[in-house]
Amino acid sequence: MKYILIIFLSFCGLFLNNVSKAAEKVNIKFEEMTIPFTIEQLSKLEKYKDESTELVNWLKNNGLIKVFEISKFLEFPVFKEEGLNREVLRSWIGRKVLTELSKTITVANDNNGIEIYNTIENLLEEKKEVSTLDIIKALPSKEISLDIDNLILIISSWKDELKMQQDLITKLNNLESTNEKLFIKNENNITSDLIKINKKIYAPHRVKPFEIELWKPEKTIIDKELIIFMPGLGGEINNFKWIGNQLTKKGWPIVFIDHRGSNLKAFTKVLEGKEAIPGSADFFLYRIKDLEATVKAHQNGEFGLNNDSYILMGHSLGALIALLYEGNNPINQLEYRCDSALKDFAVTNLSKLLQCQLIEIPFTEKSNTNKAKAIIGFNSFGSLLWPKENSSGIKIPTLLIGGTFDLITPLTNEQFRVFSALNNQSNRFLIIEGASHFSPIRINNSYLENDDLFKINESFIGSDPILVQDLSSKFIVEFIKNIRAQEVPRILKNQREMGLDFHLLDLESIKEVSKN
Q: Of 82, 441, 449, 464, whose CB has the highest number of CB atoms within 10 Å?
């Protein structure tokens, strides 16, 4: 899901791009008033702020001081000829955002943002970098309207989300601490001898076979379930080998699916300008069918294991695929919910952009005969698909893992809602304070010397990812052992281990910390 961060930055650019769209005049709509500006006035508003003229004094006296802040964005290079943001603009996501944006920034006869899109495209043919001011000058329309009230609502949604995160941490810290020993004794590894097999799986939905990596102990443990792991959007198997090492040494075989078309290789080609950004078929349809083909291969004995049971595990989009595979189809009226959810351009919950692409996927009736023993998901999402409690139809034990520093799929407004759509008394949510959306991703030190796309700014990573991964793996092993023994997992509140504060909560506890 690192690309979601890139997409987010692209949308920020798109948002700023349109903050002042007008070739000759911009009508600023604010609190039922309309204030006309020329391009020159708009570009110099910040300089005018300290002057004393009739117009400036009137704006200040009427509480319109925010108008002066617009101009500082005008010359910032928000679009670049080389980069993902141009491909995003051409994708379904870009079209949807432009449609929503056109409701706030009105250009005559451009209800769907087509004029804005064409202007940006034309400028990128001429220049390597395009600023907001470039777009204003290039727009063929002589007059546009900018609804400041709507923009403030969008900005407010971001502020509200940050406050919600702060309130959640306060509520978590106020939970009464559980007084019990966390991990009685670390279970010894069953084996250090692993077999790693690269396999190709032929399936009718793909012209070429897709690839998997099968890891299993050299000495097969008869009753251990196969773990099927799916990376997130733009992810790769190497980033999650840490979980493979931990589980295989405990005796569990694991299969990593390399989802061609939405993996690291695919997005590298996008960034290099060799491919268009993947669409909904790559994001969802092919991934679900990849999983289905993998499960079928396992059940047909192609992996050389002694049973056909399995546990689904994934990060971000990979976790959603697990939920879609085992659960109900998205509840009716998804398009209606998306229209409402995208009014803030998804700036506080980027997963909504992906969820709404499911509108393009035709779902057939499901019998829900899939039989995973459990689901384990990192940084999960799907609240728009199953917006009601117990609505997912998933009744198998599920462990979700998330952090309070997740700015991509926030806990309160996204992950907790997914958790409430599940239905099993053994369900648990591991909340790690300070962990982010990228915490489960392990990057080799060599990325500093190569062109790895995982050069994520440290401010987005949160707490030490290695510690987060080590703590997560302990709880994953314990959760699976509980399920195998048909024991209900413990509830742990306000605990500290490995320098991390965390909580293992049930649904009632999640509801408690989610209350406004």
A: 441
Given a contact cutoff of 8 angstroms between Cβ atoms, the answer to whether 442 and 464 are in contact is no
3-state DSSP assignment of residue 159: helix
Structure-token match 């943001």, residue found: 85
Share of the chain above pLDDT 90, in %: 42
E strand or H helix that includes residue 504:
strand 500-505
CA distance 332 to 283: 20
Segments making up each domain of the chain, as ranges: 2-156, 175-514
Is the Cβ–Cβ distance between 375 and 326 less than 8 Å? yes
Question: pLDDT (tens digit, 9 = 90+) per residue, 270-304?
Answer: 766 677 777 788 889 999 999 999 999 999 999 99
Strands 398-403 and 375-378: parallel
Region of poorest pLDDT, from 2-16, 59-73, 268-282: 2-16
409 in Cβ contact with 415 (< 8 Å): yes
280-316 burial: b if 16+ Cβ within 10 Å, else e: bbbbbbbbbbbbebbbebbeeeebebeeeebbbbbbb
CA-nearest of 425, 415, 342, 430 to 383 is 415
What is the crossing angle of helices 465-484 and 241-249, to 10°? 40
pLDDT at 48: 66
Q: What would the pLDDT profile of 470-493 be if each residue is shown by its tens digit?
A: 999 999 999 999 999 999 999 999
Backbone angles phi, psi at 159, to 5 degrees: -65, -40
**Which residues, including other chains, have CB under 8 Å from residue 132's CB and lie 6 or more apart?**
16, 17, 18, 19, 20, 73, 74, 75, 76, 78
Three-state SS at 133: helix
Instruction: With a cut of 60, say whether residue 85 has pLDDT above it.
Output: no
For 44, counting Cβ atoms within 10 Å of its Cβ (0-12 exposed, 13-18 middle, 19+ buried), the class is: middle
The architecture that CATH gives domain 175-514 is 3-Layer(aba) Sandwich (3.40)
3-state secondary structure of 147: strand
